[in-house]
Fold:
Amino acid sequence: MLFDIEPFLHVWRSHSLHIALLFATAAVGAVPTSTSAQETATVHGDFVGTLGPLHLKLHITAAPDGGLTGTLDSPDQGAIGLPCTDFHREGRILSFSVPVVHGSWKGSMDDDGATLTGTWTQGSPMPLKFTKDRFVAAAKPSMVDGIWLGTLRAGARPLRIQLVLTRDNIGQEFCAMDSIDQGAFNLACANVEYAKGKLSFDIPAVHGHWTGNISRNHNRLDGTWNQGVPLPLNLVRQSQPWAPPPVTHSAAIPPVDVDDMQSVLSSDLEQAFNSGALAPGTSAGLTIGIVRKGVRRVFAYGTATPDSIFEIGSITKTFTGLILAQMIEHGIVKIDDPVRLLLPVGAVPTPRGLDISLLDLIIQHSGLPRLPDNLKPSDPDNPYADYHAANLYAFLSGHGLEKVGDPPFLYSNLGVGLLGQALAYRAEVAYPTLLFDEVTGPLAMKDTVISLSAEQVHRFIEGHTADHRVAHAWDLDALAGAGAIRSTADDMLTYLEAQLHPEKIGPTGPESSSKALTLAAAITLSHELRADAGTGTQIAFAWLYNTATGSYWHNGATGGYSSFAFFNPKGDYAAVVLMNTTVGASGSFADLVGLHIAQRFAGAPAVSLSE
Structure:
């Protein structure tokens, strides 16, 4: 377990942007630029910048005739070598386009071309400043310099780890780590030390440390990764860095209606049935629920049945967001309340500055890390089972809950798990009870639970790792609000239909009528867009919103399951995809199926489901 409940957030975009985020295309030819007699700045070389939470690298090459070519990398998204075109230069003004993501940049060249200050436009404009990368590699690399690839067996599935080491011209060693299967790229190293065959470094972003030795033939790094629990991590030298496979698309067909979607998907999944994610021998099961204009269908493939129960992982966060909205509608809490005031008195010290609020937590702008640094599971296959409220409060007593500056979007299981714990403490009930009282009871979602009944245990489909081994189910306590829910496709369709048409919600019985009366307003509140969450994406109460397609969405993954849910109010359709296999080397198959369904509903080219 290297990072969090789900292997980073797989950002779901429109089909054109999704391509750009997942693979690199070939570089383009030179494009002549305009020149001016007043032009003094020159621009070429490697530049670095940040766009919200994303780290970007811009590579510009100047030809003898003055033409410019370039590529753009977004390492955090695994997008390397996106071609830049249409370079134009007038005096100190430079502009270029990145067609594959429908983006463009325009700004000024300052400091004799060492600084590019301007605006990135991809829907809404955002400031984006590039500065020249001054790194100068050593004339003679060290013995550890190069590209290294290894496997970390963390929890239920193996994780491929890539390390890139480079020494500069004054002898300092630099490195960056990629967790390929979690979609986490370019994690910066700190405290890199190499001497007499021994190497060590820290990865501050995940509170990790590696130490080990280079082999006598200089082709292996053998050592230990420690992120609370020491695990062996050996790496082998590579000649080329890992690159994600290309994403292809099936041709567009007319928008598919609900009654035809199963047959269309059965055809589109043919290769997956024969030799891919759903092939015989994988034990994989897939249950899909779709709804459009009130017509709903549930169907299943592989080992799953229509009423199979799955872990939904981080889709749980949207339920925690709706609980928050319900409690706001009831007047129990306010949106800007400090979360500290909902916890036991004295559990968290009073900050000198601003408090982290309930809103900050649900929109992932709290500045809290992805996970607490005292999460040290006794069973890595069930990593959250023994993390209780006392552990959470112990972490918070040292870390505090001060909001420092204006934190960018940073996906935090800790943050939303803390929110669930705080709301339950204020309501004086456990999180599972709060979930029933505020959401699942009023919506009559009888199969959406955290603890299974004896009958539900028989329908709880067995989960599997990416390499098809049986996986342990995950149990969450203090962080339940981040990922503890189990559900069926039918129940999830009820939830998604409520998102599409909150105005149709009414009392379902005496025990839930009072909460049902506020549920429509709470859902509407939970859909309000509050902040940016990366290029082309905004965030409401945990729901992410694709500005290009108008869809709200969230995904999830645990050690043996993956899931994806979306709803599109404009098109009046929604879908949920539940799978009993966790995220694999090529990403989340559940995500791909969900995106594919949305594109089939819209009549757009659909991401291929062939692997």
Notes: The first strand starts at residue 45 and ends at 51. Confidence is low (pLDDT under 50) at residues 1-40.
